UniProtKB/TrEMBL annotation:
The lineage of its organism: Bacteria, Pseudomonadati, Bacteroidota, Cytophagia, Cytophagales. The chain crosses the membrane at residues 12-31, 43-68, 80-100, 112-130, 142-162, 174-196, 208-227, 233-257. GO terms for molecular function: phosphorelay sensor kinase activity. PANTHER family: SENSOR HISTIDINE KINASE YPDA. Keywords: Kinase, Membrane, Transferase, Transmembrane, Transmembrane helix. Pfam families: His_kinase (PF06580). This is Histidine kinase. The keyword Manganese does not apply. Residues 279-358 form the Signal transduction histidine kinase internal region domain. InterPro entries: Bact_2-comp_sensor_kinase (IPR050640), HATPase_C_sf (IPR036890), Sig_transdc_His_kin_internal (IPR010559). GO terms for cellular component: membrane.
């Protein structure tokens, strides 16, 4: 309801179709003649009601669902205008002919048809005004517009049925204007004040609203029965309505609410699992970077040529630990925070093999993990550090990376600042961007909603990150 506008052409079609179906049922069961006993005029009047209703509905469908979209879509407007006019003229002729000949109207001019035309024109104008006033960028989202347009669509259908009173009797408009809103309001009353209170454990309040509604209904019917001096209004109407609400309506709607919430909960859980799995898979792909692995192996190979095997074997061990972490522990929902910090240290040590001897590089890594207890979702810290090494180091200009990681009162805090250098090639730009920080923000919103803080500030020379998460 917030992110986009509803497809109101379809919504309007369904609402008008429902209203037309109600009117058709009232005609069918309220005016159906006995073909053996009734005269021809009675039968023709019944047929006239059906023909007029079918004509009005067919005209609405043709104009609303076909001709108006064609008018909006095509540059040449006149053919659509002519077809709309012809459709209205044919519908007017059929309504006038069958209405007058069937004895439904007193003169050949069907005033109900004119009322429907004016009503439809007013609806189109109102819908256009709502679209101009209540849609982005004038308002923040589509929620108010969607609700207002739904109410307008309902009112159009209600007044459409009122215009059909000479054809289908007042019954459909009463159903649409009283019975359906009553069901809707009663459902909301149950959901928020009875079922909702009971679900939250507020049993006393739920009983108060439940029996308070029953008392109000009985009081209203009692007053009516006293004024009309008819006791059966209270005993049949009041007790009947109260019994229907207590024994049928509230239990049935409560069951529907439970089923719907269970269904929506399953959808939410499945969506969360799919999003998290997709995010983890994308993150894994972004981390197993062949470019980084080849650089690391080349560095280890160069070290092996210049030194004895001690430094090289240490680097190979760190690289092996990192790969095992990425292939196994990275797939788990939570891991000990000590393992995440071990991976961070191995990553930094391998990067230092590449850049540690650069004279223009200032590196400062402070990792205080004494108070770091508990578990954390894997690969939440590395993206910041990887981003710092990718964007913060230049072989020709002065560069720096300063990291401070600590745990305070059950929360992990990371402050990281690095220098910024312009990317020299589009290929390096695509490679360095990867999924990176955007993917990390998505994972944080999924795994730690309202339990993390991420502030990123950048300028021409520095890129600063403050990240904290409640473990």
């Amino acid at each position: 309801m917030k992110s986009k506008s509803l497809d109101f052409r379809q919504v309007e079609w369904w609402i008008v179709t429902t209203a037309t179906l109600i009117a058709f049922l009232f005609i069918l069961f309220g005016y159906r003649p006995s073909f053996y006993n009734d005269n021809d005029q009675t039968i023709f009047r019944f047929v006239s009601r059906i023909v007029i209703l079918a004509t009005l509905y067919a005209g609405f469908h043709l104009i609303h669902m076909i001709l108006i979209p064609k008018f909006i879509r095509e540059n040449e407007k006149w053919p659509s205008i002519i077809w709309i006019f012809l459709t209205g003229l044919v519908a007017f002729g059929i309504s006038a002919l069958f209405g007058y000949q069937g004895g439904l109207i007193k003169n050949p001019f069907p005033t109900f048809f004119l009322g429907i035309i004016v009503l439809y024109a007013c609806y189109q104008i109102g819908a256009n005004l709502l679209n101009q006033a209540l849609t982005p960028p004038r308002v923040r989202d589509f929620q108010v517009y969607n609700y207002a347009r739904l109410i307008l669509s309902y009112l159009f259908s209600l007044f459409f049925l009122i215009q059909l009173d000479p054809i289908a009797s007042p019954g459909p408009s009463i159903i649409f204007g009283v019975f359906l809103p009553g069901i809707f309001i009663s459902s909301l009353y149950n959901y928020f004040l009875v079922y909702g209170k009971r679900k939250k454990g507020k049993i006393a309040q739920a009983r108060l609203f439940n029996w308070g509604l029953v008392a109000l209904i009985l009081l209203v019917f009692l007053i009516i029965s006293v004024e009309e001096n008819q006791e059966e209004i209270f005993f049949v109407g009041g007790l009947g309505v109260a019994a229907f609400i207590q024994l049928i309506f509230f239990p049935l709607t409560s069951l529907i609410f439970r089923k719907l919430e269970a269904y929506m909960g399953q959808i939410t859980e499945l969506t969360y699992q799919v999003d998290q799995g997709q995010a983890n898979m994308e993150f894994l792909r972004s981390q197993i970077n062949p470019h980084f692995l080849f650089n690391a192996l080349n560095t280890l190979y160069a070290s092996a040529l210049m030194e004895k095997a001690e430094k090289t074997s240490d680097g190979i061990q760190k690289l092996g630990d990192m790969m095992r972490f990425m292939l196994h522990e990275n797939q788990m929902p939570k891991i000990p925070i000590s393992r995440e910090i071990d991976y961070l240290r191995n990553y930094i040590d391998l990067q230092l093999l590449r850049f540690g001897n650069q004279a223009n590089l200032d590196l400062d890594f402070q990792i205080n993990d004494i108070e770091c207890k508990g578990e954390i979702a894997p690969m939440l810290i590395i993206p910041f550090v990887e981003n710092a090494f990718k964007h913060g180091i230049s072989t020709k200009e002065k560069s720096w990376i300063r990291l401070n990681l600590r745990c305070i009162s059950g929360s992990l805090h990371l402050d990281l600042v690095n220098s910024v250098h312009p990317v020299k090639s589009k290929e390096n730009s695509r490679e360095s961007s990867g999924i990176g920080l955007d993917n990390l923000k998505k994972r944080l919103n999924l795994v730690y909603p309202n339990r993390h803080q991420l502030n990123i500030v950048s300028n021409d020379s520095d890129f600063f990150v403050h990240f904290s998460v409640h473990l």
